[in-house]
């Protein structure tokens, strides 16, 4: 083993000596120096100087420092390098993305990707994924009462089940299930949003796009912060972080933590409750608490070999939860947005752990990556008034914790790193195993006396639903780019995915829980299914210089098929097939040579086929089928501008035209038993706003040599859309106005902020299907405001 490590270490070929200064020729201490697509990096000393051993005579170096715009420099064998960093209020920083699973400049990457760096995340107060709405064109976030049960829509592509259509990655860990989302965002390096299908490199559930989140990693610089924040609705948000080298140039440690809680904004009114309960009148609903921790260890075994371990854990809990609770319909909600009508106050408790172990070997012209991940999710809930009362249940106790959802995955990937070569490639294999206990089909439904009498069951009965899923899959993928010459590049890619699924479940009435005893009327059923998919990609781009890029591309995405985890009549297929989306795109990117202006423009067309939705398959029996198709087309614009020093303007706009095609709903009149067929072809896709608009303006100025003030204002405008596929439950267009003012003195910062300053009423969620008469909705948060005090070192 020691001989193998010695073989891998190798000797560096070139020593890079450099100096980093500001515009006044003063040295910048503690500036971070990083070589793209490598583990190599260092920090400047008090004189702004650094020494760095690199593996090649041509490398792309990224230089960043607090308060300065990030700059990328191509080092081509010079003996010394002098870099002048300009203040971030005078120029836009260079943007590096990993959208193609290798680090490269945003402007030359032939893919539609929105990138938020740590400064933008802080300025826009993006505390969760909901903060991306409108900042990312044609992106919408719909929350089901808690952040860990939400729907993300990009270009109208979204879902109606536990399998997401937008894949979310956090430090290389894929959140395979919707329940895995909802991590609190703090100490984030960058968020990349890849718009449109990304099946070739990211695989299953990347039909609408990918959210790729990277947390800050430790370096040779000791740094950290402590932050406390307070706001209305009883908000507390306090965080801390520390990153430091344990052994310089070899071993690094990082930690960040966050605690936040907030009271609900709904006041309970039992007058319209499912079962009136006046004792709960005036109680607050929608409280939540989060406790989050992120631990990082990084070991540079040599210039060529690096390992990193990242462990994240979050606990979410509430005794007056918004989980799955709702207001009766949109008319009542818009008239009384701060009211809710519950017979009981529910509780939830979720624990999630994400672990990623990454090993990277940096060869002469390639990087070999080994990524092993593990995810564990545990959920419990009780007294959820939906209407009706629902509790998590496993064996013998109402509200007990469900068995953990567990996901293991392994990816082995190779990437080319020779920037001078006309051939660039990415290839690899991926495998995963998932043990799933989906919360909506692992529960106890508590019956009222009237419901028990109607079903001819003893009063006090609970109908038990059980569902255990075992899923495993394998994929092989590759992408190759060829520089044809004169700035032209051709990219082709292909991915093959194979997945096996197994579900063990019971049918309605098979299990009854009464007087602390389980009554089994029928044995559980086990069903299996297997699926495969090919995801090709083809792109052609023209990059005449380092400041612009024009491309046209085709990408395919897919969402996994599955099993109807309910007892169906004989002859009815228990399984349903995958969905597919085909994306055709034309894009243009431009950076001005003085780095004061940035523009990205995209036109797209998506063909979405074999949509999965519930339909009538037998008398009084509904199951998920592949029932229809849809199209989505539109335009997207993103731009940033610094017209004068200190003033930064940001804008994004998305226009989206969507339509269901060949989509027939099959339903049943429960009185007459008659089958009803409704063709919704021509309707707009649900949760697909006609447009999204974001405008941001920020101005900073120095009050004195050590005191700086910054004022920021934002407008987020969301066009009208329907939450249901029938297009009867409408959210009209709405505007959100946000503001922020901050004062920086030495290492301290004091921020005053406000969100939704006009107290706009709008829906955070609405029913996807209103054909059964259900029109449950949830209003979003009202005006919120607060302050934050932080200290950075």
UniProtKB/TrEMBL annotation:
Domain TonB-dependent receptor-like beta-barrel: start-end pairs: 356-757
One GO-annotated biological process of the protein: iron ion transport
Key words, A-Z: Cell outer membrane, Ion transport, Iron, Iron transport, Membrane, Receptor, TonB box, Transmembrane, Transmembrane beta strand, Transport
Cellular compartments per GO CC: cell outer membrane
Membrane disposition: Multi-pass membrane protein
Annotated TM spans: none
InterPro entries (alphabetical): Beta-barrel_TonB, Beta-barrel_TonB_sf, CarboxyPept-like_regulatory, Plug_dom, TonB-dep_rcpt-like
Protein name, entry field: Iron complex outermembrane receptor protein
